[in-house]
Design brief:
single chain; 426 residues; alpha/beta; Elongation Factor Tu (Ef-tu), domain 3; Rossmann fold; 6-stranded antiparallel beta sheet; 41% helix; 18% strand
């Protein structure tokens, strides 16, 4: 039972968990991966580079440090819950993870892992597991009950392929069954189950880059030199069938923005931002500023598409920076400034107290977050997508954005409540 005594033990163990949390999580994965079926769920590249263990260690540390203020963790719960639904995580998985992490604590902490400590953490993980299980059930039900929605994986066919730049290729996907699809919320991603030649299936998340619709989806993938998923997708021919989970993700555009909006992207981080731009061109009337950074014209994707958005929606302004323009790149047409997005450009784009939506590579994200903080943009106004541990963005960690609990529940439902049959407004 997770009573006050158990809560106090978890709270008092926070310094030790901060010191040894990564070692505990790494040992937990060793134990967990004794089950090959569970190991297949995890991205092997994120295990090799330590991204996955660091992200989980940060979550465990945060849980210990905020055990008396769990509302602080609601943004983390929402972000992770969307990923878990997309990956098909079940209640049974939580039982396996909980057992392995308690065993790992015993292995790593040694004599400090007293029966009282392990008992308290067992109860604490039970509470956290229930929160996640209930929230994930509600999210999965919301998608499954919506017109065009589904549960688990669904077969999609590559209907069209377009090269958007030297590195980025778009795949247009339509359901094999000929049915409709649930319209995604701008900013969400699609999770693909890729049958690689190694025989090991691979789950990959790719942002949806087109305007929401009911006939299919578009993802736009940058080919990475050692990327197993992107390498596979860049070889696919029209007609290839792949399995997809339904759209998911917490990084989404407000349905009716009341303030100006700043869209801020770098490189392939443009993909979720572009979907937002389409939606804002269709329904917004408040000013929208779209700042994008690219290396040069060869790397810049969707230039003509963004120009079309600006042409049909005069309230949308764009500003494109090329770090190293080529001789054939045309100033004033292909790009507006040489170099990176500087402080003056960022400050000008933030006039009018905008909501900021941000996505891009880690160095770009870090620079933009620091720049926004330096000019006084409230942290609550900044929304961003980042795949990896939060600490990767924070050379000087800033406090987490803590939403008002009532506002969170009004939008998302209570994480601790039993899910009812929900309605989704896409």
């Amino acid at each position: 039972m997770f009573d006050n005594a158990a809560r106090a033990i978890v709270r008092d163990s926070a310094p030790a968990i901060r010191l040894h949390g990564l070692a505990v999580v790494e040992r937990m994965y060793e134990l967990l991966f004794r089950d090959p079926a569970i190991e297949l769920i995890f991205d092997p590249s994120h295990m090799r580079d330590g991204t996955q263990p660091r992200a989980l260690a940060e979550a465990v540390i945060a849980y210990a440090e905020h055990i008396d203020d769990l509302e602080t963790l609601l943004p983390m719960v929402e972000r992770v819950a969307h990923k878990h639904v997309a990956l098909g995580i079940t209640a049974e998985h939580y039982g396996s993870v909980g057992a392995c992490i308690i065993e790992a604590m015993g292995d790593v902490l040694g004599e400090a892992a007293t029966p009282a400590l392990l008992g308290a953490w067992t109860a604490a993980f039970g509470v956290l597991a229930d929160i996640f299980i209930n929230r994930e059930s509600a999210l999965a039900d919301a998608v499954a009950y919506h017109d065009g929605g589904w549960r688990g994986l669904r077969d999609f066919r590559v209907d069209r392929v377009e090269d958007e730049s030297a590195l980025i290729r778009s795949l247009y996907l339509v359901p094999v069954d000929g049915g409709t699809v649930i319209p995604h919320v701008p900013g969400q991603y699609l999770t693909l189950h890729l049958p690689l030649s190694s025989g090991r299936p691979l789950f990959r998340h790719y942002s949806l880059s087109a305007a929401p619709g009911t006939t299919g989806y578009r993802i736009s993938v940058k080919r990475e030199p050692l990327g197993a998923g992107s390498g596979y997708l860049h070889t696919l021919a029209v007609g290839t069938v792949i399995d997809c989970a339904a759209p998911a993700g917490h990084f989404t555009l407000a349905s009716a923005p009341e303030r100006p909006v700043l869209l801020l992207s770098g490189g392939v981080g443009q993909t979720p931002i572009l979907s937002m731009a389409h939606a804002l061109a269709d329904r917004a009337r408040a000013p929208v500023r779209y700042l994008h950074a690219a290396i040069d014209g060869a790397a810049h994707a969707f230039g003509p598409e963004v120009a079309d958005i600006v042409a049909r929606a005069p309230w949308v302004e764009r500003h494109t920076c090329y770090e190293r323009p080529r001789a054939e790149d045309r100033p004033g047409i292909d790009y507006d400034a040489v170099g990176r997005i500087d402080a003056a450009t960022l400050a000008a784009a933030c006039s009018g107290d905008p909501d900021v939506y941000l996505c891009g590579p880690t160095p770009f994200m870090r620079a933009m977050l620091d720049g926004l903080a330096a000019i006084g943009v409230p942290a609550a106004n900044v929304h961003f997508e980042f795949f990896g541990p939060q600490s990767s963005l924070d050379e000087n960690p800033r406090p987490p954005v803590i939403p008002d609990r009532e506002s969170f529940i009004a939008v998302n439902g209570s994480a601790a409540a039993e899910p009812s049959r929900p309605t989704v407004v896409a």
